C-alpha cells in the first residue's frame, strides 16, 4: 500500500495536451505590445476564413506549434509585427511572456521558444483589409 503513504496531490499522473500549451503560448504572445498577429502569409489568409469560431474570433493557436514531453515543451511561433517595432526586442518580450505563462500554468519546463517573423504589418494595410472585407458577405 504505497499509495497510502503518498500525499494525495501526487497520486496519479497529469497529462497536458499540446493544444492546451498552444493556446497558452498563443495568448501570451498576443499580449506583447507590437505583435499584430500570429501566423503568416497564406496561413493567415486561410486562417481568417477557416479559423473563425463563434463570436467572430480567430483561432488562438494559429501560428503556434508545440512539442511536449513528460516534463518539457518546445514552442515555435510565427509572428507578424507592427511596422516600427524593434523586432529583436519584441521577440525577446514574447519569449519571456510565453515561457512565464506556460511554465506557471502547466509546470512544464520550456526548453526553447523559436520565433519566425513572417511579416511586418504596415499602417496602410488596415485600410486595404477593411476595404477588401467590405464586399464580403458575413
Report the average pLDDT across residues.
83
CATH homologous superfamily descriptor: Cation efflux protein, cytoplasmic domain
What would the principal axes of the Cα set say about the shape? elongated
At CATH level 2, the architecture is: 2-Layer Sandwich
Structural class: alpha+beta
CATH topology grouping: Alpha-Beta Plaits
Radius of gyration: 18 Å
Q: Strand-and-helix sequence, N→C?
A: HEHEEEEHEH
Instruction: Give the class-level CATH name.
Output: Alpha Beta
Number of strands: 6
Q: Main beta sheet: strand number and arrangement? A: 4 strands, mixed
Straight-line distance between termini: 61 Å
User: How many domains comprise the coordinates?
Assistant: 1
Proportion in β-strands: 25-35%
Can you give a write-up of this model?
This protein has helices at 18-30, 41-50, 87-106, 125-134; strands at residues 35-38, 52-53, 57-58, 64-68, 72-82, 109-121. It is α+β, with helices and mostly antiparallel strands and 138 residues long. The protein has one domain: Cation efflux protein, cytoplasmic domain (Alpha-Beta Plaits, 2-Layer Sandwich), CATH 3.30.70.1350. The strands form two sheets. Strands 1, 4, 5 and 6 form a four-stranded mixed beta sheet that branches. The protein has a two-stranded antiparallel sheet with strand order 2-3. A hairpin with a 3-residue loop joins strand 2 and strand 3 (57-58). Helix 1 (18-30) packs across helix 3. The longest helix has 20 residues, at 87-106. Mean pLDDT is 83; it is low at 43-57.
Amino acid at each position: 500500500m504505497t499509495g497510502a503513504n503518498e500525499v494525495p496531490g501526487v497520486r496519479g499522473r497529469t497529462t497536458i495536451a499540446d493544444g492546451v500549451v498552444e493556446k497558452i503560448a498563443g495568448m501570451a504572445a498576443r499580449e506583447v505590445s507590437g505583435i499584430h498577429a500570429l501566423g503568416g502569409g497564406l496561413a493567415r489568409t486561410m486562417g481568417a476564413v477557416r479559423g473563425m469560431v463563434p463570436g467572430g474570433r480567430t483561432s488562438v493557436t494559429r501560428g503556434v506549434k508545440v512539442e511536449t514531453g513528460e516534463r518539457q515543451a518546445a514552442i515555435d511561433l510565427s509572428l507578424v509585427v507592427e511596422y516600427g517595432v524593434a523586432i529583436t526586442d519584441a521577440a525577446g518580450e514574447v519569449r519571456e511572456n510565453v515561457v512565464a505563462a506556460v511554465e506557471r500554468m502547466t509546470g512544464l519546463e520550456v526548453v526553447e521558444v523559436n520565433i519566425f517573423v513572417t511579416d511586418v504589418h504596415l499602417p496602410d494595410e488596415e485600410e486595404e483589409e477593411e476595404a477588401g472585407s467590405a464586399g464580403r458577405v458575413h
